[in-house]
Amino acid sequence: MAESKELKLYTLPESEVPTEDVVSSIVKLTMRNSTEPIQIQQGYLQSANYVSASTGWKLTPTTGEFNFAISVDSLDIPDTTTANSFHVETDGDTFWGSTPANFVSNPDNAPAYVLKTGIAKFQQVTISGTQANIAIRAPSEKTYTAGESIAINAAVFLEDAAADLSKRDVNSTGAPGDQAVGATAPPPTTQGTKKGQAIQETFGFRTSKIKVFLKKVGTPTDSIKVGIQSNSAGAPDGTFLGSATLAGSSITTGYVEYTFTLDSEVNITANTKYFIVLERTGTLDNTNAYRVRSDDNVSYSGGGIVGWDSTNGWSSETASGRLEFELLTTTVAGRIYNASARTTDESNAFIGFMKVAVAGLDTGIVMLDSEVSGFTGLTVGTQYYLSNTFGAIATSVGTVTRKAGISTSATSLLITNTW
């Protein structure tokens, strides 16, 4: 029969009254030689120097008090597998509401944490009392009026003074050609009554000015009208969204670039086709007409040239060739616009990234500092710069060098906003 390990109470004979030192020696010897768990069922154990809330230690069946520093590798309350828990990692990170495995996978899996780097996350914080030395720094953001359509996460700059910014400049790179405007057709050219140039951009903006190269033939006494129309089945729809005129008497017989300030600013929506349209205001006349310069050997990604006469209507877009033109935005001080590294005007005043997409003349929130999420395909730890594409960033510098941020993940960028 196996020997029972049940402890037997030892009763001292009444004739033997042990001193405190004897009892202490017996307890110390028993605890030192014991190979069984020591259980405190009642009473307490305490150190010789124990003073409540001051020094030493004390253990009872339900409580413990330690008045000295304690070192542990990590702390998991109640364990490492319960989600509703509290943890202190070996490296000093502290978090709540997540298992250690989920936290290591992604710290944001925890609803609350304080990292050793000083970064913290909480769902809600309430501060009360009269303490004065409390500083809270939240991500800085501000609401601005947009001067044009701006996509979410697009880099933006804040305009300080009105200026004309070029949004699309299509100039001659090949053999300049002539396109008739205001002539009967034929002769001299088929569909020479009106001319149009299809435009379609991948970014949105508001245009207030159009530049084209013009000359006159003979001495026209009327004016030439230049403006923008919407697309209808691959041709101008006949209604000007914004236009301007220039008297024939002000146009020379040799090509000069003229600027037309539109009577109404036109909102150009991204990935939507429009047409620049040129027509005369008076009677058709072959002898006294107008010409617009084209680039006949080079195409433009936004579309080709179209022509109109009363017999044939609008022609199909040319497969190659384009009118020479430039679209400009007249900025307004205090509004935000898509930033780029094309010019110092569009890069020096870079302030941050759009928090939400916004249409032209609407208000939107700009993230001015901190970490911005929602990007795709970023390389972690890489410096990003403004690029020559409106609102976009790149790992290489554009025409003007302007730092925008450092990627912290494939989808997040920490705004640095430095030169």
Tell me the number of strands.
31
Assembly type: single chain
Number of domains: 4
Tell me the structural class: mainly beta
Question: Into which percentage range does the β-strand content fall?
Answer: 35-45%
CATH topology of the largest domain: Jelly Rolls
Poorly predicted sequence stretches spanning 5 or more consecutive residues:
none
Named at the architecture level, the CATH assignment of the largest domain is: Sandwich
Helix content: under 10%
Largest sheet: 7 strands, antiparallel
Mean pLDDT: 87
CATH class of the largest domain: Mainly Beta
Task: Explain what this protein looks like in three dimensions.
This protein has 419 residues and is mostly beta strands. It folds into 4 domains: 40-69, no CATH class; 75-121, no CATH class; 144-159 and 335-415, no CATH class; 164-330, Jelly Rolls (Sandwich), CATH 2.60.120. It is built from 2 helices and 31 strands. It has helices spanning 20-33, 100-105; strands spanning 45-46, 57-59, 64-66, 75-77, 86-88, 94-96, 112-114, 120-121, 141-145, 155-158, 164-170, 176-181, 194-199, 205-217, 223-232, 235-247, 256-268, 274-280, 289-295, 305-309, 313-314, 322-323, 325-330, 336-338, 350-354, 363-367, 371-373, 383-386, 393-394, 403-407, 412-415. Strands 11, 12, 14, 17, 19, 22 and 23 form a 7-stranded antiparallel beta sheet that branches. Strands 16-15-18-13-20-21 form a 6-stranded antiparallel beta sheet, with no helix packed on it. The protein has a 5-stranded antiparallel beta sheet with strand order 4-5-6-7-8, with no helix packed on it. β30 (403-407) and β31 (412-415) form a beta hairpin. The longest helix is centred in the N-terminal third of the chain and has 14 residues, at 20-33. The chain starts with 19 loop residues before the first helix and ends with a strand. The model has no long low-confidence stretch (mean pLDDT 87).
